[in-house]
Amino acid sequence: MTITLFRARCIRTLNPARPQATHVAVRDGIVLGAGTPAELAGWGSATTDERFADKVLLPGFVEGHTHLMEGALWRYVYVGWHDRTDPDGRVWPGARSIDEVVERLRQAQRDLPHPDSPIVGWGLDPIYFGNRRCTRADLDRVSTTRPVGIAHASLHILNVNTEALRAAGWLRPGIDHPGVPLGDDGLPSGEMKGPEAMGAVAERVGMDREALAGDEQAVRRFARLCVRTGVTTATDLASPLPESALAMLLRVTAEPGFPVRLVPLLRLLAEPVPRTIARAVALRAASTDRLRLGRVKIVADGSIQGFSARLRAPGYFNGAPNGLWYVAPEQLAQAYELGLAQGVQIHTHTNGDEAIALALDSLAQALARQPRPDHRYTLQHCQLADQAQLRRIKALGMAVNLFANHHFYWGDEHWSTTVGPERAERMNPCRSALEAGVPMAIHSDAPVTPMAPLFTAWCAVNRLTASGRVQGEHERIGVPQALHAITLGPAHTLHLDGEIGSIETGKRADFAVLEADPLAADPHALRDIPVWGTVQGGRVFAASGA
Ligand SMILES: [Zn+2]
User: Fold this and answer.
1) From the CA of 403, how far away is ligand 1's center (Å)?
2) CA dist list (Å): 235 to 9, 252, 434
3) How far apart are CA 97 and CA 84, in angstroms?
4) What is the rounded CA–CA span in Å between residue 225 and residue 153?
5) Is the dihedral of CA 11, 399, 413, 410 positive or negative?
6) Is 125 left (phi over 0), alpha (psi -120 to 50) or beta?
7) Do residues 12 and 52 lie in contact, with contact meaning Cβ atoms separated by under 8 Å?
8) How far apart are the CA of 97 and the centre of ligand 1, in A?
9) How many angstroms is it from 37 CA to the middle of ligand 1?
10) How far apart are the CA of 238 and the centre of ligand 1, in A?
């Protein structure tokens, strides 16, 4: 076996026993060691790779909460508020009003082959339009003959036009569903909230999750984005994982040039709980190095900025009614108990503190019946956890993956509208989580916000909102803690910290190749550090060639 000796300007290993080095020796995709050439010479003769001589190596970033859908959505029309970079590096400008959104879709439909093919946009967020909601009348201005849909940035709401509602059989009076608000005429307004209501129309606009899960081009686009942002392991949280999609993922990730380790979580949906847990157990056996299977994701509530998250009293700051449950409490308790019994790890999406409370109560109950050490059941987002909840999270052996990007994208709106100043300052409490001893990661939830771990780290360190205010001074963390939260932190939530997340003997040779040293940079400049590319399993991938 040949040994490659990568020389770098600096290697930040995140191995506390040997935090810094200049060389790392790699054989067969595994790190032999990090150190000086003299120390590493004992492994045998090596070929020195000088191309990173002026670069900085970190452990490959681990994105603990992202979605392959980030790759799929780029086949639709981007209509989000913020400018956004696509997988090829092109920047799409934000759409700053409903009129601009409508105009962008009108333009895009001119390229469509058939007068009745659906047209889809993504990234909408009415909170930036003074919470003026988009209606089917708005989207009828795009077309009255073809189905039109726009997925919200949160992915928890889908707006459709009249034709899409009609085709799906939902254009009728008398509908009584919490996810289907009605207009003045007693018909659905076109805003469909939550999986059930969205699912009813998603297929009509060409956005059903099964089709998205099997999109091979999306996987390739997603992988390019990973290389561009230094990510070597990424979750897909979560997928229905139909058999066809699974076969595709196994084939694509096995290609010698595929640059990422994917960790798809199986989503618990309408199926009976025991069937989902049994499928997760069966999937585990199909795992490969670059496709790790067998974990389950449950969504407990919606999104805070969409007012569909479940909040405890005193509720939303602007008086909006409480959000939606996406899971029945009995279902959650049953899943936890069966998961613990079968050794299936479960990650639970909880945005509001009432959803967090439900997850904690359910797990406490399940653990009483089915104790299991080191289960690492992880709360995803967990944005509004208070101090008492963090102590319970620690006591129950859970981990958290906090949504640090929210400070920038919705921080101002959380302060003024959704939860008010006090809870806005405690949102995504990185420092408190660490002080409580809770294993902690941070994430982008791409496509909800863009995937870029150095940006996510910048958010947790600076807590700056889009308007430039520091929000939650006391929950800021240092750069070393933030780097941990994008490497070993998320690796821990996946039970992969023994394999990835640091550069040390025996671990996978996964590196993020950077142009500057995050530990020497101004913390305010963290997000601006250029990413050259990655090394994954010892294979080199340049962002410029991605
Ligand atoms: Zn998500």
Assistant:
1) 10
2) 30, 16, 23
3) 16
4) 18
5) positive
6) beta
7) no
8) 25
9) 43
10) 7
- Give the list of residues 6+ apart from residue 376 with CB closer than 8 angstroms, or none: 345, 397, 398, 399, 439, 492, 493, 495
Give dist(CA 440, CA 490) in Å, integer: 7
pLDDT at residue 210 is higher than 70: no
Q: 236: CA distance to ligand 1 center in Å?
A: 8
Q: Measured in angstroms, how far is the CA atom of residue 448 from the centroid of ligand 1?
A: 7
User: How confident is the model over 35-70, as pLDDT tens digits?
Assistant: 999 999 999 999 999 999 999 999 999 999 999 989
* Contact status, residue 37 vs residue 8, Cβ threshold 8 Å: no
Contact indicator for 183, 189 with CB cutoff of 8 Å: yes
Q: Region 229-234: what's the mean pLDDT? A: 98
Calculate how far, in angstroms, residue 106's C-alpha sits from the geometric centre of ligand 1: 29
Question: Cα(540) to centroid of ligand 1, in Å?
Answer: 29
Report how far ligand 1's centroid is from the alpha carbon of 235 (Å). 10
C-alpha 331 – ligand 1 centre gap (Å): 20
- 412 CA to middle of ligand 1, Å? 21
Ligand 1 geometric centre to CA of 29 (Å): 30
Please give the model's pTM, rounded to 2 decimal places: 0.92
Quote the ligand 1 centre to 445 CA distance (angstroms). 5
| Rounded Cα gap, residues 61 and 227, in angstroms | 10
Whether pLDDT at 160 is above 90:
yes
Q: How far is the CA of 483 from the centre of ligand 1 (A)?
A: 21
Dihedral (CA of 36, 41, 42, 44) sign = positive
Q: What pLDDT band is residue 437 in, cutting at 50, 70 and 90? A: very high
Residue whose structure tokens are 């805070």? 304
The SS3 assignment for 61 reads strand
Q: d(Cα 459, Cα 405) in Å, to the nearest integer? A: 6
